Amino acid sequence: MKEKISFKALPAFVILGIITGLLIGTFKKFIGFVSHFMEGFLLTDTKTDKVIFLALILGIGLVTFFILKNDKNTKGSGIPVMTGMMEDTIDVSSEKTIVGKFIASVLTIGSGLTVGREGPSVQLGGLAGDIVGKFFPNTDRNLFIGSAASAGFAVAFNAPVASLIFAVEEIFRTHNFSTFLSSALTIISATVTSGLVFGDHPSLENIPDFANIDQKSLVLIVILGILAGLSGVLFNKVVIGSKSIYKKISLPELVKYLAPFVITGLVLLIDPRLYASGEELIYLPSEGNEELATLIYMYGAKILLLALAFGIGLSGGSLVPLLAIGAILGNIYGSVLADLGLIPEEMIYAISLIAMAGHFSAIVRTPITAIILILEMTGGAFSNILVLALVSFVAYLTAEICHSKPFYEDLYERLLITEKAS
Predict the structure, then answer these.
(1) How far apart are CA 227 and CA 371, in angstroms?
(2) Which candidate, 98, 89, 60, places its Cα nearest to that of 309?
(3) Cβ(40)–Cβ(137) below 8 Å
(4) Using a CB cutoff of 8 Å and minimum separation of 24, what contacts does 192-200 make?
(5) What is the three-class DSSP state of 315?
(6) Torsion (CA) 323, 327, 328, 332 in degrees, nearest 10
(7) TM spans, by residue (predicted)?
(8) Which of 25, 53, 94, 144 sits a CA distance of 20 to 30 A from 290?
(9) What are 120-174's pLDDT values in tens digits?
(10) Phi, psi at residue 7, to the nearest 5°?
């Protein structure tokens, strides 16, 4: 019988955290390098550079296709695969998959497609945990996988507290002394290592401090929670539903796989604002904002671009895009309220950040993680926990009433069906 955890194994989790911090920190840096390189061709006015951009994005599609073809466990966000590893329903060669996942994710995310870094960060962490755990056969392997996966989340968002809660709500889905101690040690050492080596700053920088929202305005936040919940239901239906649509399309596998790269590339040539996961769109209220019609267009475009990439199983996550889409939803709602004179214009930004928490809660169904994540991502600039809690739980309840499955639970069930069929 394996021990759950022993004091002799504790240094192993510290070492694992250091490894994970370096791995995910390097992963983020490489994404930044590729993204900066690609934007250099996208944002010029010369036709030659635009042709080069399309050629590069198509080339990246070809390279990643053969990586994913060689190892199916490098597909998608990777969180469902990691769940399968912990439940012994999926066989994964961690040493092989960690290399393919790193390369495919760096190229796909850096190319400008609407996918995020957080899912691959969680899987890369989990794979590193599995490799390290093999040297400690007397300690539960899942403690290494789950703790390092949570540490990957922490470094991806620079949000150690939210990642500890994410470990309870999504990774382990239980709480005891062993899971807490192993996760805490790994997350803290990973976050400290990443901060020392790559810099310690909030995921969203230069967010202004906001005053707490008056309790008389809480009814507006309840409405926002309902809207975020309904948007979460739509998000899950469109993004996960795209997988079923792709299966019905009778085209060669390579053609279907390259379609998101080609279509996204053409869209970005027309509107570069839609580049990558959409983090920059969170800052719109502080940059003069956009017209209401433009915001609605951006909301729809980002959901469709994510569905386009996610449905075919490209190596990339959905959490950063869903946060960006949530921020756009909040921006739309806040702009309408400001036009009606119900809130001052400077409060639109705060409403956008609040909506991010509601959107995350409705889609992933982890409301406490959503609350703490926004606090940490903004560096505490928005500190109204009551409002964040209210929007998160109303959005959660709305999604439950609509019988929308939690995002990763739905993906995992689909993955198991695919595994059985193959």
Answers:
(1) 17
(2) 60
(3) no
(4) 192/17, 192/21, 193/17, 193/18, 193/21, 193/22, 193/25, 194/21, 194/22, 194/24, 194/25, 194/155, 194/158, 195/158, 197/21, 197/22, 197/25, 198/25, 198/28, 198/29, 200/158
(5) coil
(6) 150
(7) 12-31, 51-68, 98-116, 143-168, 180-198, 218-236, 257-276, 296-315, 322-343, 349-374, 381-399
(8) 53
(9) 999 999 999 999 999 999 899 999 999 999 999 999 999 999 999 999 999 999 8
(10) -65, -25
Query: How far, in whole angstroms, is CA 86 from its chain's centroid?
Result: 20
Inter-CA distances, 302 with 97, 238, 292, 298, 422, Å? 29, 11, 16, 6, 32
Contact of 372 with 332, CB cutoff 8 Å: no
Backbone phi, psi, residue 202, to 5°: -60, 155
Amino acid in position 408: Y
Angstrom distance (rounded) from CA 364 to CA 346: 29
Pick from 87, 45, 356: nearest CA to 204: 356
Cβ-contact 378, 211 below 8 angstroms: no
DSSP for residue 382? S
**Cα–Cα distance, 386 to 381 (Å, whole number):** 15
Expressed in percent and rounded to 5, the helix, strand and coil fractions of the chain are 75, 0, 25
Instruction: Return the amino acid letter for 251.
Output: L
Structural tokens at position 363: 């889609």
Tokens read off for 211: 């005053």
Q: Which helix (H) or strand (E) holds 29?
A: helix 10-42
Yes or no: say if 321 and 277 are a contact pair by the CB < 8 Å rule. yes
Q: What is the pTM of this model?
A: 0.97
